[in-house]
Amino acid sequence: MALIVHKYGGTSMGSTERIRNVAKRVAKWARAGHQMVVVPSAMSGETNRLLGLARELAPARPGDAYGRELDMLAATGEQASSALLAIALQTEGVESVSYAGWQVPIRTDSAYTKARIESIDDTRVRADLDAGRVVIVTGFQGIDDQGHITTLGRGGSDTSAVAVAAAMKAAECLIYTDVDGVYTTDPRVVPEARRLQTVSFEEMLEMASLGSKVLQIRSVEFAGKYRVPLRVLSSFTPWDIEIHEEARSGTLITFEEDEHMEQAIVSGIAFSRDEAKISVLGVPDKPGIAYQILGAVADANIEVDVIIQNISKDGKTDFSFTVNRGDYAKTIDLLKDKVLPALGAQQVEGDSKICKVSIVGIGMRSHVGIASQMFRCLAEEGINIQMISTSEIKTSVVIDEKYMELAVRALHKTFDLDQSGNGKVAQS
Length: 428
Ligand code: ASP
Ligand code: MG
Description:
The chain has 13 helices and 18 strands.
């Protein structure tokens, strides 16, 4: 008997019929003797629907002005799905109780719409588990020290589940979703993409931060910090498959590097269209320039990703960086209004039609020449690289958005990810 956390995404909770299926699956695990905590997302589309209503009333950047109320509003989506799941479980003859984040309580900071979990008091949940109940805890939300309801950012139910699993020292956290695991890349772009049986926590962290949408990045950070055994698997398998079979399906996020020794050098290709490039031209090459430019951008709460500063010619240089596409116009305006005049720089230019494509693999640490293999592949496809950024286990390039799919397909092939012979990759 073990304490297990299940998390079900919005699609898995998308209708009463699906909720009934979730209840049957959870009931199966509970009847096998496990102590079960379940963290559901809102029914699919519900969070968008609720936030859409708010936008109808307040079109101007509601995220900034009405954060508290948006959280009050959006948190209801998970409250509804959690209660429905408790009802479905009870009709299956399984005793269960649902709690909103504030009832647990899951304590967070006060950063509305993107709060961070600070602590979880598991006393109440444990008492219910000990009394033989399945406990359902709303995903995506908590309460701050003033008693205000907060939410954890889009996709935040993943983080709720992992945080609950960490706080309760669960044996495993199973993230049930509408795909059957983590893939070498998005199968919609590369039909040959394959499910990974295991992926290291560090690779998962890179993939999540580089645009793979399978898990919210904070949930992966949490899993790493507290070493929560985490598995991503499908909620669309028949609910009554054998538990031992189900428990081995999907993709396991591992912490043991040894398991990867024999395996692929590159584990996956991540990509993101969500990028824009900005260059400040003719910047004087002297101390403090990067700070003057990026400090102003950071003060406006804009996240910067890839950064390049060129070698100077005649005391002037060019300075380029990428931001989220949604922040593009705001960043250009900010630079033109505030930064250019102070810098004596000549010009700001930008391109919002770019994308970032990355290869990720812990094997890159111990193998040289992987980045150049990537560059050769792109050269052979005639794709121009605009920016490059590297870390120990990834290489990213910024390229024209129109070549994104071509680049991803070519790289997937170059690094043998199409091949079924790859030890790390499941035979799907
Ligand atoms: N319901 C929230 C969202 O749509 C949280 C989640 O599903 O993880 O972002
Ligand atoms: Mg999600």
